[in-house]
Amino acid sequence: xxxxxxxxxxxxxxxxxxxAEAALRAGDRVAAxxxxxxxxxxxxxxxxxxxxxxxxxxTDPAAAREAVDEAVRAFGRIDxxxxxxxxxxPVSLPAAVEDTRLLGVVNVTEAALPVLRRQGxxxxxxxxxxxxxxxxxxxxxVRGFSEVLAEEVAPLGIKVTVVEPGGPDSGFRQxxxxxxxxxPAKVADAVRRLVELxxxxxxxxxxxxxxxxxxxxxxxxxxxxxxxGYHDLVDELWAEDLHCHGGSLxxxxxRDAWKTFLGANTDALADxxxxxxxxxxxxxxxxxxxxxRVTHSGPFMGVPATGRKAEWLGIGIYTVxxxxxxxxxxxxxxxxxxxxxxxVTLPTA
Length: 349
Known about the structure:
By secondary structure, this protein is an alpha/beta fold. The protein has helices spanning 14-25, 41-47, 61-75, 94-119, 136-153, 184-194, 214-226, 234-237, 255-268, 334-340, and strands at 5-8, 29-34, 51-55, 80-83, 122-127, 158-165, 203-206, 238-245, 251-253, 269-282, 285-296, 309-321, 324-332. 36% of the residues lie in helices and 28% in strands.
């Protein structure tokens, strides 16, 4: 049977339910968990044997291990783990929030990792709720845990992403809560698309208000356009009259010129990947420090293809307005790259 196998916590309603349904509509199978598995009966009626309902208290490590084992017995593997537990009513005690959110993420992830290691692949998505009390402490911990985990398991073929919705309706929030909820169905569809990326980001913003945020726009450009080659998204992410200041590579004006430049880079620099190290935002401006890694596969800066690999430091400064990049400045260590390609030899001291 084709399609992915998902393991999703807190799947009875809200965002977890929407993610489960988005996966099921795509033809995938879902191990759906809830404290009371009877609340998953609707999913089972709608999708039949593609759904495996599992009762789970995510704060119980033994229960998490048994739930993962049950999913593997039923479906043979797990491709995607979604830690969605912990979006609780704002009047709940902070200690309960911390236990459910942080311990839930750790317990389920630790239970699933042996399976993903054996498979040599998998994707862990940890849902975060940025900027809201009493979530803040646990979400800082979840992000830190996820970022460290991503580095540790990347060599094993396992991907990790922190998903930060722009305020989705978890199913627990009530009227009068600090801000209106986004459409969880749209967030769920974005999550489903996220797991299809070859090189997904370690951290991503989703939700109805997220796409227009300057940082989110720039991250989408780097993650989807540059690192995954979806050049058709340039029309969505860049203004028609954009200006790019490329330093030694010259300046570009307009989307068509930018697309031509991207296409030429793709041909000349195979496997182009920008490894983002720092992102700093102020107003409509976003600064990114990155390490670029490539294989020199075609003519670039007057140098014929060498087949060599190279990496160098770079900085990009973007201006984003109305959800599109209108201006960008780039500074990159082209000299260092040319030295690695053998095109330039630096004098010895």
